[in-house]
Amino acid sequence: MFRKEYIQEAYNRGKNQSQPKRRSDSFFDNEVQRYYFKLVEEYPSFLTPHSKPFDPLELARQTEEIVGKGNSRKYTDFYCTGVYGGISTGYTIGCCLRCVFCWVDFSRDFPLQTGQFFSAQHAFQNLNHNARKAGVKKMRISGGEPTLCPEHLVSVLELIRETPCLFILETNGILFGNDPDYVNRLKKYRNIHIRVSLKAGNPEGFERRTGGKGEFYELPFKAVEYLKKEGINFHVAAMTDPGLMPGEERKMMLTRLKSIGYNDYLEEERCDPYPSTAVRLEKAGYKLRK
Description:
Number of helices: 11
Order of helices and strands: HHHEEEEHEHEHHEHHEHEH
Number of domains: 1
Structural class: alpha/beta
Number of strands: 9
């Protein structure tokens, strides 16, 4: 739908977070392209120190309208990678947070212009084919928040349950924490392991590093509670890089986990300097470590 110059213009606006002089309507071919460009302008991309905090549940809804269609969802690629000892991966699009330390490419910020739709059946076929070809026994959906478009996710899980593969579900916990019934739907899948990634230990840290309103910082902790209650196999990860999360906030996070009864393995993450990560950190006002 877009020519390259449209994508570049959208990229520059998101990257610079500025308000350049608007081009005349002759820049656009027709009304449809003007409509979609308006969506690009309004859809949150990179954070800056002046970004207005957003409702991550509302952003989830907006994103699902872009990346979901029936039981289909947008992907950019399917491949195998060496993490988790070898795993077949579907690289999907769309997230309801705007973490400054996010490693994924710019499809996160501009989902309208990237990827193509794959049905659950087609996505599973690609995941299964690559797993067999590489001789691996694990699958995942990565690159975006996999709990968006729940019908697509559940349909993929239904197909994977008939294989000997383990499905690793990496999530920010926002939708699970908001909807215990969603968590309940997953407990029948015995070949699933969920990795809940905490972004902050208090509302202020959550708001600054994810862009979501601080009042929503509790949702990932609620997700941990619901997963524990349902007896689903999971563990907690957290971006505790000292260059991003102050030591006192880390202590608050650990105290909060203990208070909800989580005393198991905590995977503590460090920020990797992917090119997209470097842009996001810089635009959010973080000084990059040499």
